[in-house]
Request: fold
Amino acid sequence: MYLLFTCGVMSASATNSPNNPLSWSLNSENTHYVKVNAVGQFWLRHTDMNPGSIYNGYAKSKGLDIGIRRFRVQFQSQLSDKVFMYAQLGLNNFHSYSDRQTGFYVMDANADYEVVKDKLALGSGLSSWVGFSRFSSPAASTIMGVDAPLQFQATNDVTDQFIRRLGVYAKGYLGKLNYRVSMVQPFDIQKSPIASSVSISKQASFSPQPPNMQWNAYLNYEFKDKEQNKTPYFAGTYLGSKTVSSFGGGITYQRNAMWALDTKGDTIFHPLLLASLDYFYDAPIGHKGAAISVYADIAYTDFGANYLRMAGAMNPMNGSVDKSILNAQGNRFPAYGTGTSFYTQVGYKLSQKIATLNFMPYASLQRSYYTALKVPMNFYEVGLNLLMDGHNSKLTIGYQDRPIFKSTGDLITRKGALILQLQTAL
Reply:
């Protein structure tokens, strides 16, 4: 409420920054401030649906849809030399069959106190100060493609709220080492989108019992320029405005998070263990505006025996009549599972402008060896960014290619989706 009040009522001690009309200084040195930012991502998409997909009982093999993938309003405030507050209101996946008059909800609400300058800050609240990889906390406004890599948001909307959790955290810099550690309380899965399908079998699933605390850590050593750690979100690409070379590693652990039946039919519990190593490089090339961005990650995700979960961003279908299709409806694919995954993305910003536009083609690949599948799961994306004003105003054209599996774990075909995303940011 303090943030909203400060933004709405300007006093003599709070003046606009000349460089940002939505930034207000709270002292003469401009070290205490309130900032407001906003970003919207709007999709026009054509999707080849998974076999058997239906919409309200009507079969549909392909279709065009429009939606708001993300809309965010962020509030940042350095209230004193030691105290920083952050809040974010947002909206995700609003489309033609969403509940009407959907309102913003609180995505982030946290504050921290700097105990030792730059080296240690302690905080609490609803946040994504979590592991286990760089893109477990992606900055949505700076992602390279039409979407962040979903596999690093491994418990998304099951035991968290779109990667955010209630918890306490510590963060800071030790020389060139940027670190974060947190203890968070997972949300009750009985109120998640999978609540209606919670059951126990020989295949591991999330336990509906009261959850144990979850522990997270992510450390990255920054060889070149320093990245921000005021907020938990890592940039997808700096478009050449920085030279960043960062090697990181992280872990997420929760005791007895999963359950299953053993060969005797007895209930057994299994910890959730997620770990990864990654490398990020983003830098200008030459002096004419060209830039390169590279990210690579190897991850081990252990959810228990043969765990597998489908994901489909802003899924355009709501049912399936073909039970032999493991993916089920719409654009779903096996994004999460027990096994080892490799992910990489590469982008190149061209030095020459064409009609005032910068161009940045990109490509990415997720290759996962999940124990529940008989062959590797490969998810591709290729695309092109048309940068009108960097990340503040851009069009992204992306093609996503996903595998379709039988319920036996065999690969049977592939389907795709062509997405046009308009992003505007303030």
Q: What stands out?
A: The chain is about 0% helix and 55% strand. The domain at 2-425 is CATH 2.40.160.10 (Porin).
